[in-house]
Amino acid sequence: MQFLSKGSEAVLNPKAYLMRSARNRLINEVKRQSRTHCVSLEELAEEDHPLLADPEAHLHVCDLAQALEAALAQLPLKKRQVFIYHRLEGYTHAEIAQKMGLAINTVERYVIDATRHIRTQLHSFCPADSGLVEKAGKPIIP
């Protein structure tokens, strides 16, 4: 229906068009849902549980979570929302743009800016040999 609402030329085969549109929407929804599937720590098998391997891991995870919350709180509201939608909830840039009424380029810029800010704020949690070393005072964003 999005295509038809844009005032385009007449569709030659409306039934085929609707079937293809429905199929594509279903595929997109399945992709979106598969990106956001998470397993809670309680559901993990005991041998797969990351917090049991190291006694200090729980403390480190709590510190990291607090630092992430603080870094997110420092971002402007729209950048924070875009980052959360994209990185934590798995929405695409186009989905976020449509949901928030922003241009796709704006969404892309917000994701980049927020990612840089968070990496800078959480730099102390990153081991020196992880490949995210600094060059000229700026963290490298892969």
From TrEMBL:
Q: Which SUPFAM superfamilies match?
A: Sigma3 and sigma4 domains of RNA polymerase sigma factors
Record-linked Pfam families: Sigma70_r4_2 (PF08281)
Q: Does the keyword Kinase apply?
A: no
Biological processes per GO annotation = DNA-templated transcription initiation
Q: Which InterPro entries match?
A: RNA_pol_sigma-70-like (IPR039425), RNA_pol_sigma-70_dom (IPR014284), RNA_pol_sigma70_r4_t2 (IPR013249), RNA_pol_sigma_r3/r4-like (IPR013324), WH-like_DNA-bd_sf (IPR036388)
Keywords for this entry?
Sigma factor, Transcription, Transcription regulation
Q: Where is the RNA polymerase sigma factor 70 region 4 type domain?
A: 66-111
This protein's source sits in the domain of life called Bacteria
Q: Which GO terms describe its molecular function?
A: DNA binding; sigma factor activity
Record NCBIfam families: sigma70-ECF
Q: What is this protein called?
A: RNA polymerase sigma factor 70 region 4 type 2 domain-containing protein
- What organism is recorded for this protein? Alcaligenes pakistanensis
Q: What is the lineage of its organism?
A: Bacteria, Pseudomonadati, Pseudomonadota, Betaproteobacteria, Burkholderiales
